[in-house]
């Protein structure tokens, strides 16, 4: 059975799920999206994901053509149609088809697309062994140019950094902001541990406000750990006791080497391992 894809009220077979080439989402990356996970048939942190989607849309003056309730129903309908209990959900709202100019006022019918599928971002062994990353020379978007808080369809900034990572044999890459501080990775937020305290760059460092990041901060604080959101430099990362990344697709994944410098002894640290497990328990509900 072919996967069904939701487009603006209708479920289509994957091969027939198409939108106009005049859609400004396609022409200009003019649109917003979310990546979510469903565990045991329940969407993890659905409300914060919808908040972020609506905030991203507001920031680009895009009116989402349905209510949050209708969006929730559409997501559940698509998951059910595909019999997916544990999977990944890609929710996209495009500006809609228009003329060939930039003017968003000359578009009509923003399209809502929901893809539900299975995802395995990183091989299992990386959760045991940890991953190696490098710093990309591509700087994260300046917040005043295009806020990294907007989860827009234009991901070229991150893709350019991802290419640099891949060219260096790494599947993730670290991005700095225009001040040279650590921002985030191309599709994940970054944390370090030093003397038992967790550190992660603040929102003002120019990052996406990751929902997994929030969940991990909560989990760490619940177990009595201190978490500080303060600006970090690459030096802080190099001398950290532990390092890990967070993201919807990646969940919590250890980092054991940054720019050819092993993090501590080059193996995933105990607090990272604990958080990998705690996050699994939180999402799997056991
Ligand atoms: N930063 C960027 C640039 C991302 O694309 C993502 C993935 N959405 C993240 C961080 C992690 O965010 P979340 O935990 O909400 O998936």
General description of the model:
Helix content is 29%, strand content 28%. By secondary structure, it is an alpha+beta fold. It has 2 domains: 4-117, 2-Layer Sandwich (D-amino Acid Aminotransferase, Chain A, domain 1); 124-284, D-amino Acid Aminotransferase, Chain A, domain 2. The strands form 3 sheets. Strands 9, 10, 11, 12, 13, 14, 15, 16 and 17 form a 9-stranded mixed sheet that branches. A 6-stranded antiparallel sheet has the order 2-1-8-5-3-4. The protein has a two-stranded antiparallel ribbon with strand order 6-7. The chain binds 4'-deoxy-4'-aminopyridoxal-5'-phosphate. Residues 35, 158, 184, 187-189, 208, 210-213, 246-248 line the site of 4'-deoxy-4'-aminopyridoxal-5'-phosphate (PMP).
> What assembly state would you assign to the polypeptide chains in this entry?
single chain
Mean pLDDT: 97
CATH hierarchy, class of the largest domain: Alpha Beta
Helix and strand content put the structural class at alpha+beta
Number of strands: 17
Any key phrases for this structure?
alpha+beta; D-amino Acid Aminotransferase, Chain A, domain 1; D-amino Acid Aminotransferase, Chain A, domain 2; 2 domains; 6-stranded antiparallel sheet; 8 helices; 17 strands; binds 4'-deoxy-4'-aminopyridoxal-5'-phosphate
Describe the secondary-structure layout:
Blueprint (H helix, E strand, L loop, with lengths): L3 E4 L2 E4 L10 H5 L2 E9 L2 E2 L2 H14 L8 H14 L5 E8 L2 E2 L8 E2 L3 E6 L7 H5 L1 E5 L20 H12 L4 E5 L5 E4 L3 E6 L2 E4 L10 H12 L4 E3 L4 H5 L3 E6 L3 E8 L2 E2 L7 H15 L2
Parallel strand pairs: 9-10, 9-16, 13-14
Antiparallel strand pairs: 1-2, 1-8, 3-4, 3-5, 5-8, 6-7, 10-11, 12-13, 12-15, 15-16, 16-17
This protein binds 4'-deoxy-4'-aminopyridoxal-5'-phosphate (PMP).
């Amino acid at each position: 059975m072919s996967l069904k894809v939701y487009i603006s009220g209708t479920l289509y077979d994957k091969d027939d799920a198409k939108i106009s080439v005049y859609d400004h989402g396609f022409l200009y990356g003019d649109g917003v999206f979310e990546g979510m996970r469903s565990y045991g048939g329940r969407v993890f942190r659905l409300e914060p994901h919808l908040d972020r989607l609506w905030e991203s849309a507001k920031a680009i003056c895009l009116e989402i053509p349905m209510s949050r309730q209708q969006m929730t129903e559409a997501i559940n309908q698509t998951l059910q149609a595909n019999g997916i209990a544990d999977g990944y959900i890609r929710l996209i709202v495009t500006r809609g088809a228009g003329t060939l100019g930039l003017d968003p006022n000359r578009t009509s019918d923003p399209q809502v697309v929901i893809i539900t599928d299975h995802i395995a971002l990183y091989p299992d062994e990386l959760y045991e062994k940890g991953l190696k990353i490098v710093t990309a020379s591509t700087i994260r978007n300046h917040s005043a140019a295009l806020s990294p808080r907007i989860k827009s369809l234009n991901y070229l900034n991150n893709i350019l950094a991802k290419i640099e990572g891949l060219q260096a044999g790494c599947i993730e890459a670290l991005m700095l902001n225009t001040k040279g501080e650590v921002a985030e990775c191309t599709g994940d937020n970054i944390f370090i541990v030093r003397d038992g305290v967790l550190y992660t760059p603040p929102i003002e460092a120019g990052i996406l406000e990751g929902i997994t990041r929030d969940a991990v901060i909560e989990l760490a604080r619940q177990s009595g750990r201190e978490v500080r959101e303060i600006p970090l430099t690459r030096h802080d990362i190099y001398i950290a006791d532990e390092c890990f990344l967070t993201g919807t697709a990646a969940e919590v994944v250890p980092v054991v080497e940054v720019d050819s410098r092993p993090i501590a002894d080059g193996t995933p640290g105990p607090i990272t391992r604990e958080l990998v497990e705690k996050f699994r328990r939180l999402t799997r509900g056991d």
